[in-house]
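2024-03-11 09:14:02 INFO receiving multi-entity request
2024-03-11 09:14:02 INFO entity count = two
2024-03-11 09:14:03 INFO echoing inputs for audit
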Amino acid sequence: MPVIMYREAIRDALAEEMRRDPRVFVMGEDVAIYGGAYSATQGLVQEFGETRVRDTAISEMAITGAAVGAAMAGMRPVAEIMYVDFMTLAMDQFVNQAAKNRYMFGGKTTVPMVLRTEGGAGRCIAAHHSQSLEAWFVHAPGIFVVMPATPYDAKGLLKTCIRDDNPILFIEHKMLYNNKGEVPSEEYLIPLGKAAVRREGDDVTIASYSRMALRAEEAGKKLAEEGISAEVIDLRCLKPLDIDCILDSVKKTGRLVLASEAYKDGNFVCDVAMKVMESAFDYLDAPIERVCAANCPVPMSPVLEDEAIPRTDKIVAAARRTLGKA
Amino acid sequence: MIQKVILPKLGETVEVSTIDRWIKNEGDTVTTGDILCEITTDKATLEVESYYRGTLLKILAPPGKELPVGSVIAVIGEKGEAIPEDILAQAGGQAATAGKEAPAEKAAAAAVAVAEAAPAVAAGRIFASPRARRLAAELLIRLEHVKGTGPGGRIVEADVEAAAKAGRSARAVRASPLARKVAEREGVDLAAVRGAGPGGKVMKEDVLRAARAPAAPAGPPVKPGEIVPLTAMRRIVAARMAESKRAIPCYYLDMDADVTRLVALRSELNAKGDGRISFNDFVVKACAAALRAMPAVNSRWVEGGIQRRGEVHVGVAVGLEEGLIVPVVRDVDRKSLRQVSAESADLAERARSKKLLPDEYQGGCMTVSNLGMFGVRSFIAVVNPGESTILGLGAIEDRVVFREGGIQVRKIMSLMLSADHRLVDGAVGAQFLKMIREGLEAPEGLVE
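2024-03-11 09:21:47 INFO inference complete, emitting structure
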């Protein structure tokens, strides 16, 4: 099976969907000639031309608003916001227009658009370029939020998102772009709302997403060395959420650790924990643990950035705490 | 009226107990069934119920002091009633002689029943994870009796599982006195009844509901490969039998008794009087006579030597669904056959309904065990530790024997005597068994 990079998987998904459906087009800052800030759209303008691969002004509001309009007019735009940190400038267009127009127009319109963006820390590019803001968008009814961690998931999920008629925020992770993984050359789709169990176990469930999902897998391996059997779940989609996968696991293990790269306060995983408590309270043998980023702007100093963002050892420690081990 | 609250003997081998904590305080009004205090034996934490109604006038035993069972631990009476001097003095004497503080216990390992109360419990608040609570409810385990090993002393699932493994005792089930009576009457196992009363207490309605339920197996159905937790009884039987085989050097004597006359006499006696005399009753009387006649056999191996027993108590093994218990008929040599029979029947009945007092299943000089009703021809029984011998009886069969120069059909019962060779040498054992056989073959002599 071919082994390709996360960013190549994304590019391939875009290319395949653009070949398949002429209504699909790409727009964003530096997506055309430059090939994308993280090279995710490399080669597309050469194949599809400047009409379908459009460089935009540096205006997230314009990019998003134009995508909303194009989608309502019958196109299937895949717009890119270079850093999720800049989604702030696109909020009204995305959260109030894209998310709500179908509802507010009584179903007379749909907004089939994908907003691709990326977030996460690890490059020491500081507070405005390193955040994880998915919680804000899960909180908006009307949009889906997808966060793949592997090349395989990125391609399969992006294709599904492009074919879906809902406005979807597709959040990539800047530290994953060059990660390699097996990706079939034959076409495949991954349905929305299905988590992936990366490792089966009996003692504790560790659920997370995006880059943290990879750290959770590492944590699972470390825990196995000391005889703790962790079940590791990669959520892949925050909305729709595969809550059943988590519940089945918690009912089995009785213990849950949730890991997320977003700030601790108001983190998306708090909602997951609450859902678990609502449905599986009697199955919990220990309080649910969350491993999140510190409640401070992401530091630029490498040492501080490493401390602020959840590391594997912190996930391991949380898992051990659920088992009553210091 | 002044009533003494005695430290009960809540366990077959229990000699001392420690008051863990007083639930009722001096001055509290108490009624029958109220839990007065919790006590810890060497094996379990159990509750002491009040048998009396009134005011708890005085607590005579503080928590933490190890006392012999039978000690007076409190006095119940009318508010303001004076407590007799002799009771106070007796209590004072107890406390003085008892002396030693109870040793700190580790979490129950090889013990009977459930583990001791979690030390972190304050003002009745128990910290247990939801999963632990669920499991405890399912297994009918009281969280008060589970030691928590989670953070801050929280009870977690593993702790409840450990408590379940340590076994359950019907005594540890909280039930109203009325519920216990009804359970006995209806033949309901209290340990299997889910209580809907306060704090999970089993009330009369719960017992009646369980009695009306379609006959369920004694516990949850056992899956193949599943390890079933030991009951208190099973644990004790296992320990005693293993100890017997390990420590007692036994030999076995086989004799057949001609019980033709005995069978006839028994029918005669049962036709005449009320009450049903059983074959065992005759055997018990025969054994008692032999024990009286041969003090060497009526003895016990103790540290320091051989103790001759002055009294003659004979136990009769009773099989129960979950195990075995041996109620003891005391002073058989001083009782008539009918008396022995009535007592035996009553003891067996109460053994089945788990209402035997410790006095009634301890202290035997020998045991009689009968498996004849199952068609067993003969069998070798296991000597109960503390006794010198055990007699195993087989089925009464019509057999062809050669008697007085000719062939006859006689009723024959196998007698198999197991004897502790430390106490009873071969020749002595043989004489003993011969005496029993002769007693059974001349049964009229056993009636008085």
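2024-03-11 09:21:48 INFO post-check: Chain A is about 35% helix and 20% strand.
2024-03-11 09:21:48 INFO post-check: The first strand of chain A starts at residue 3 and ends at 5.
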